[in-house]
Amino acid sequence: MKTINFLIFFLVLSSCNQYFGKKDPDYVPKNETIEIFSDRKNENFISDFEFSDIIFPKAVNSNLDIDNLQIEKVINVNNNSVVNFTNEKIIVSKDKTIYLIDKNNKSKIEYKLSLNRDEETISIFEFNKDIHILTNRSRVFIINDKSIYELADYNIFINTTPIVLDKNLILFSVFGDIYDLQLDDYSISKKNNFISKSGISIKSNIFKDKTSLYYLFNSRTLLTFDKNNFDYFNNYILEDLNILTSLDAFIELVDSPFSHNDHLYFLDRSGKIAVYNPISSDILWELDLNDTILSYLFSNDGYLILMTLNEILIISNNGNIISSYKHNKNSPIKIFNIKKNIYLISKEGISKLNLENRREDIFIENKFSNNLEIFFQDQIIYIKDDKSLFKLSE
Fold first, then answer.
1. Does residue 278 have a cis bond before it (omega within 30 degrees)?
2. What three-state secondary structure class fits 242?
3. Which phi and psi (to 5°) does residue 341 adopt?
4. Three-point CA angle 94, 393, 338, nearest 5°
5. Among 362, 370, 368, residue whose Cα is nearest residue 347
6. Residue among 134, 209, 219 at smallest CA distance from 171
7. What angle do CA 127, 133, 138 make, to 5 degrees?
8. How far is residue 102 CA from its own chain's centroid?
């Protein structure tokens, strides 16, 4: 019996990958995996490629031409600050103050808002040449002739950025109600309601295709509206995709899906990508990077440029990874482009990347924090993080 027990123990031990002995103090475990993404089957590297103008998440002026980036702080902000621009002004909210900053001479005008406790600015927009301020209590203020006053109070609690249209605001209450605010007469009406899934609150971009408008209430709740009359569609595009995909479920979208050649591009933060036609329910291609997607760019000729925790990847319009660049940044935040050049923003600064030669051409040291936003204004780029608004120019 002892012999049998010994043989069983020996067989179990020999088939187990665990180490049961005592490690020496200077023991260093060996990692035999050389290429972290060696199991990807969509790699088809090419040395000579060129992408055209970037159209998502924001269209970039093709005439933007900055060779030597200089970083200048414009104003201190906080993590809840909202920024918007007119032709001549930069409008910034901070706590209970609205700042109007002249782009040319940097002069600054301050306006004090009479806000309630826990009330904050959630959107700044322009209508009929007047600057409007919307708070998370759905109060509307207007700046006109160097004065600020309350225009309306709708007593609706909102916690996400509204959809700003030419003459309408689409508001979303914390309870899932959808309201249409008519800016011509500031009347408001309830349009519909939706069921919100538990997800991460993000600043969603608003994208359109031939018939619909797409908006993320949070990372798991995708809302769809009629492109022409902005009626809410109670459809299940994301749910349908999750039924059809061969990958794990898409549960934390990076942004609203954007449309290209009649297909919607879905990017999940976990590294999953699906190119899906919501009309035919066909999946053109899908890919799992097994790495967290932090930022993306998309060109009008179908190149998808992704920044993950470890790499910059260029993916063709048929789903092949045609180039990769290991950025080796401990805290990458976002990527943007100037013409054909890719820039990576990390918490330590901005890097200009040479994807062809796999090197960093330029590094500009600067401290950035989280919740970073990028704004393109003619030949100037503005970057807002949790602490400051910066200006990038020559």
1. no
2. helix
3. -95, 140
4. 105
5. 368
6. 134
7. 110
8. 28
pLDDT > 90: percent of the chain: 72
Strands (E), 195-348: 207-208, 212-218, 221-226, 232-233, 258-260, 263-267, 272-277, 282-288, 293-299, 304-308, 311-315, 321-326, 332-338, 341-346
Q: What is the DSSP string of 59-85?
A: ---TT---SS-EEEEEEE--TT--EEE
Please name the helix (run of DSSP H) or strand (run of DSSP E) that holds residue 329, with its range, or none: none
pLDDT at 47: 60
On the question of pLDDT at 121 being above 60, the answer is yes
- Using an 8 Å Cβ cutoff, are 194 and 179 in contact? no
Return the number of other C-beta atoms located less than 10 Å from residue 92's C-beta.
24
SS3 13: helix
pTM, rounded to two decimals: 0.86
3-state secondary structure string across 104-165 = CCCCEEEEECCCCCCCCEEEEEEECCEEEEEECCCEEEEEECCEEEEEEECCCCECCCCEEC
DSSP-derived secondary structure letter, 175? T
What torsion, rounded to 10 degrees, do the Cα atoms 191, 196, 202, 208 define?
-50
Are 217 and 194 in contact by the 8 Å Cβ rule? The answer is yes
Considering the chain, what is the average pLDDT of its residues?
87
Run of H or E residues at 14 = helix 2-14
Give the integer Cα–Cα distance in Å for 277 and 240.
11
Q: How far apart are CA 48 and CA 161, in angstroms?
A: 41
State how far the Cα of 385 lies from the Cα of 152, in Å rounded to an integer: 30
Q: How far apart are CA 322 and CA 303, in angstroms?
A: 10
Domain boundaries, the chain: 80-193
3-class SS letters over 248-281 = CCCCCECCCCEEECCEEEEEECCCEEEEEECCCC
CATH fold of 80-193: Lipocalin (2.40.128)
Mean pLDDT within 246-256: 96
Whole-number percent of the chain with pLDDT over 70: 88
Sign of CA dihedral 273, 321, 281, 204: positive
Closest-CA residue to 173 (of 202, 203, 193): 193
What are the tokens at 160? 């996400």
